[in-house]
Amino acid sequence: MSPAFEIESVIQEATINEKISLLAGKDFWHTHPLERFNIPSIRTSDGPNGVRGTKFFGGVPAACLPCGTGLASTWDLELLRKAGMLIGEECLAKGAACWLGPTINIQRSPLGGRGFESFSEDPYFSGKLAGSYINGVQSKDVVATVKHYVANDQEHERVAVDAKVTERALREIYLLPFQIAIADSAPGAVMTAYNKVNGTHVSEDKRLLQDILRNEWRWKGLVMSDWFGTYSTTEAFNAGLDLEMPGPSRWRTGIANLAVSSRKVTDETINDRVRNVLEFVQRASKAKISLTETVRDFPEDRKLNRQLAGDSVVVLKNNASVLPLSKDIKQIALIGSNLKNVAFCGGGSASLEPYYTISPYQGIIDKLGKDTAVHYEIGAYSHALLPILSDGLTTPDGRPGALISFFADPPSVCNRQVVDQLSIREAFFQLMDYRHPQLETLYYATVEGFFLAPATGIFQFGITVYGSGNLFIDNKLVIENTETQRPGTSFFGKGTAEEIGEVDLVEGKTYHVRLEFASSPTSKVLKPGVVAFPGGAGRIGTALKINEEEHIRRAARLASENEHTIICVGLSKDWESEGFDRQDMDLPGNVSRLLSAVVEANPRTVVVTQSGTPINMLPWADKTTTQVHAWYGGNETGNGLADVLFGDVNANGRLPLSFPRRNADNPAFLNFRSEGGRVVYGEDIYVGYRYYEKVEREVLFPFGHGLSYTTFEFSDLHVEKTRVVLKVTNTGGCAGREVIQLYIGADEHASRISRPKKELKGFAKVFLEMNEMQEVIIQLDRFATAYYDEILAKWVNEKGKYKVLIGKSSANIVLEGDLEVEETVVWSGL
Ligand code: BGC
C-alpha cells in the first residue's frame, strides 16, 4: 500500500531541515523517514547476484545466483527475467524494497576486480540482459538500481581516478547499457559511480545526471550515490544527486542548510531532489516486504538457480568427444582445489551468506553410482589468502563457528565488560553496518574458537585486518598485525596484507584460536583513492603446509591411471573482488604447472576452469582436448556444472567476453590503472571483440563461443527493414538449446567514421528437439546501424549497405545477408 503522504504538500510544509534529512540515508542501508508526514524509511540491499540483507557478517542466509558474467553466458532473456523475479522475492524476504543491482559496467580489461559482476564486454548485450533482469525484479514491486553510472570499469583508485573517454566511446560503449536498460525496463534508481569522467566526479556531473539521464533520456527516478561516493554538498545537489548514501550523512547536515541560506543551492533544487526521493519512497512502498529479515529457499528457487548455473557453463572444447561423461564408470580421478573449496561468488559487496553451496566435488559424485571409485588429489593450492577458518571450528559452548565479543575497552583494561556477543559461522567479519549504542568508533573485539586439527603437520595461520589484530593459538602470540602493517587487497582495499605464522598441530587435537582485534581507527594502512568505512574488518585463514611438487606428481600419476579425469581449478573471491584489480591474468601459484602435468599425463582430462573474467590458459590450452568454463555459479555451482559434464543439461552457455591469448593482447593493456590520477580509454570504441577483429588479433576463445552436444544448422536467412528471419534446425543426436547471434557489419570504407568489423545487434535462444526446425525472428532496432556522431551530438543511422551476419560466435559467421539504409537518419533521446 502506498504511504499516505502527498508529495507536493510535504514539499510545501516541511522545514528546510526536514527536507534535507530526506536527502541522505538514515544509516548504512535505509533512507530517512519523516514521521510527521508519514514518510517511511526504505531499505536498500546489495546486489547484483543475490540479496544480502542488512548485515555484512553474520547476515541472514540468501539465495546466490551466478555472477554477472555467468548470467550473461546463458544468453537467455526469459531466464534472466525469471532470475530477476527470484531476486525480487528475495528482496521482499529481506525487507528490502530497493535492490542495489544490476551492475552493468564494461569489462575493458580482463583484470577488472569487479568484472565478474557485470554482464559483458558488449554494451548492447549488457543493456538487453539488464532490461530483462530488472523487469523481473520490478515485477515484484521492488525498485532496481542500475549501477555504477558510468565508467566504473576498474578498481584502482576508484574514487579518485578520472576516466578520460571520448564522447563517442562514452555513448556507444559505456552509456549504452544504461540507455537500453532504461528504455526496456525503467529502473526506479540509478547509482552514481565513484570515479570522475572527463574531469568531474559523476556524483557532481550535471551533464551526466541531468542533461543526459533526465532530459535526453526522459528518465524519472532516484539518483543515489555509491556508498561514501558523495563528495560535496553544493556541487552534488546542483548536479542532480538526489540521495547521499549511506547515512548518517556527511554532506547533508547543517552545512547543507548553509548552502541553501547562502543560495549556493536554491530552494527549487532542494525541492526537485526531495520530489525524486519521495516519488521513490512511494514507488518502493508498494513492495510487500517482510517486516523481519527472513529466509525462503524453496525447491522451485533451487530448480531455477540450478538451471541458471547449468546454462551458464560454457563448453569451450570437446575435440575428443569426451563430453558428456557417462555416469556408469568404474573409477574417476578428481583433481584441483576448486573441487572442494567452492568458488560460488566473487568478493566485495556482491558477496553474501548463501543458503547452502554445492561444491563441484559434491555435484560430480552425486551423479555417479555407489560403485564408482572416486580418487581425489588437490594438486596445488589456488588461494590468494589462506582459506577462512571454519571447518572444524567450534565456539567455546560447542556451536559450529567462532564467538565474537565486543568491548569498549582494550584488552589491557582489567575486568572490561563485554557489551555484545555474537556467534559467526566462519572466522571472517566486516563491521561497516554493525552498530552498538555502547560502542564509539574505536572499539575492540575478541574472536575465539576451538579448532580440531584435521591432520598432523605444520599449519599456516594468517590474519588480515582493517584495524589491527594479534592472533594467539593456545594463548601464545603467533601473529602480530598491529604495529607494522603492510597494505593488502581485502576489505574493499582497506585491509592489510595477510601476515602468516606457522604452528605444529596434531590430528584430532583441539587448539584454542583467539584474535584480539581493534577497530578501523587503529589501522596504519594508508591508501589513496580508497574509501574508509566504519568498524573495520578481519579474517583468520589456515591451511596445512604441503609440498606442491610432490602433490603435482601425485595428481599427474592419478590422471595417468584414470581414463576419466576431471580437474577443476581457477580463481575465487580472494582474486576477483571489489576493491582491487588483478595484477595479471595468471592462475594462482602452481596451478598452471599442475594443469600442464595433468593434461600431459592424460590428454582426455576434462579441464574445468572457474573465474568471472578471462584467465591465462596459454601454458596448457594447446594440449587440452576438453575444456569447460564455469564462472562463479552461486548456490548451485556444483550441480549446474555436473549437469553439463554428465549431459543432463545439453551444454548451451556462450561466452559474453572474448578470452584473449594474453593480457598484452587486450586493447586496454597500456591503459588500465590510475596514473597521474587518470586512466585514458585509449582503445576508444574498440573494446573486446571490436578490437580483436579490427586489428586481426587471434584470441583463444572468441566472444559468443560455446559448444553443444548436438548440432544446429542455420538456413533461409531473410532480411527485412526492421527484422531478420531465419530457420534453425537441430541436426544432431539430442535435444538442445542454441543461441543465434546477429551482428551488423558497416561498410568500413564507405562510412564517414571508423567502424568495427561487426557489432552484436540482436540475439535469440531456442530449444529444439532432435530434427526439429524453428523459424526465428530477430527484430532490428534503431541501434542496429547507429553510431554516435560527436559533431552533431546525435546518433546517426548512416545511409548505405550493411552486412547482416548470423553467427555462432563473433568469429564463426554462418549466414550473411544485406541490409540497406536508404536515407541517413539522425536522432537523439532514448
Ligand atoms: C559498491 C556498491 C554497493 C555499495 C553498498 C559499494 O562499495 O560499489 O556496488 O552497492 O557499496 O554495499
Automatic annotation (TrEMBL):
Keywords: Carbohydrate metabolism, Cellulose degradation, Glycoprotein, Glycosidase, Hydrolase, Polysaccharide degradation. Pathway: Glycan metabolism; cellulose degradation. SUPFAM superfamilies: (Trans)glycosidases, Beta-D-glucan exohydrolase, C-terminal domain. InterPro entries: Cellulose_deg_GH3, Fn3-like, GH, Glyco_hydro_3_AS, Glyco_hydro_3_C, Glyco_hydro_3_C_sf, Glyco_hydro_3_N, Glyco_hydro_3_N_sf. Residues 397-556 form the PA14 domain. Pfam families: Fn3-like, Glyco_hydro_3, Glyco_hydro_3_C, PA14. It comes from the Eukaryota. The keyword Membrane does not apply. PANTHER family: BETA-GLUCOSIDASE, BETA-GLUCOSIDASE K-RELATED. Belongs to the glycosyl hydrolase 3 family. This is beta-glucosidase.
